[in-house]
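Researcher: I'd like a structural prediction for the single chain below. Treat it as a standalone chain; there are no partners to consider.
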Amino acid sequence: MWLPSELVAFAQVVELGSFTAAARAVGVPKVAVSRAVQSLEKRVGTRLLTRTTRRVALTDAGRALLPLAARIATETAAARRIMAPLTEDRRTLRVLADPAYGRLLLSPLLPRFMERYPDIPLEVEMAQTLPEEPGDHWDVLFQNGPPQREGLVGTPLGRPLVILCATPAYLRAHPPVTQPADLAQHAVLVPGQLVTELRLHRGRTQAQIAFTPRLVVTDPAVVHAATAAGAGIGVVPEFLCRIGLSMNKLERVLPDWQVADLLDLHAVSDLRRAGLPTVKALVEFFVANMVPVLGRG
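Model: Treating it as a single chain, here is the predicted structure.
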C-alpha cells in the first residue's frame, strides 16, 4: 500500500529542493522525511530521486509520479486548512467589531465574559472595515446588519430603538417641534454616513423628511455627547439616552414618533466554526447579556 504521507514527503522534497527544507516545512525531523521517501521508493520498486551533497534530482520514474504526489500534497494541505478552524486545541478567540457600537456595547460585557470563561483567551479588534466573506483570521464579527455572503451565519442581537432627543435648553431656545416637518428648521445630529433624509413612523403613519444635517459622525457616542451639550436634536440609540432622560437632562422630541430602524445588530461567524464551543459560548453570552440592554430584539 502506498502511503499518502510518503507521497507528500516526496512532493515536498522536490518542491523545496532538499530534505532539510521539506522536513522544516512539514515540521518533522529530516530523518523522517528521508525514511518516508526511501519507503516510497521500495513500494514503487525503483529510485525516484538521485541525491548528491548539493541537490536532489528526479529520475524518470520520479518525474512520472510527481504530478500525482503533488496533487495529494495539495489536497492534504487544503484538508488541514479546512479542519484547522474546527479543532479546539487552538487558540485565542478572535473578535472583530464595528468600532461605533463595539466600543459602546462590548466594553462592559468583555470583562464579564472573561470572568465567566477564564479559559478562553480573547483577541478583540475594533476594525474600521469588517470582512464580508469567511476567513481564517477571525471567529466572530460584531456588526450592524446581517451577513450578506454564503458561508456566514448571523445571530440577531437586537434592533435598538433610535429616538430623537435634545436638551431642554436647546428646545426652549428654538422653534417648537410638533410634527416631523419641523425638523427641517433645526440642527439635526446624526450617526453613520451622510444622511439627507430621515424616515419616521407612528404606528402605520410614516413621514420622510429631507434635511441637511448639522453634524454627521460615525460614532453614536459623539452624537450623544453633542446632543447633551445642546448642539441640536440628536438621532441617538435609546440605550445611550436613558440616564439623561431619567435625570431630565434630555427630552424626547416627537415622542410619539420613532426613527425607522437604523440598527440591526448581529454576531456573525464562519459557518465552519459556528459550532465550536468557544464561538457558541461568546455568541450565547452576547444574546443573554446584550439583548436586555438594547431594549428590544
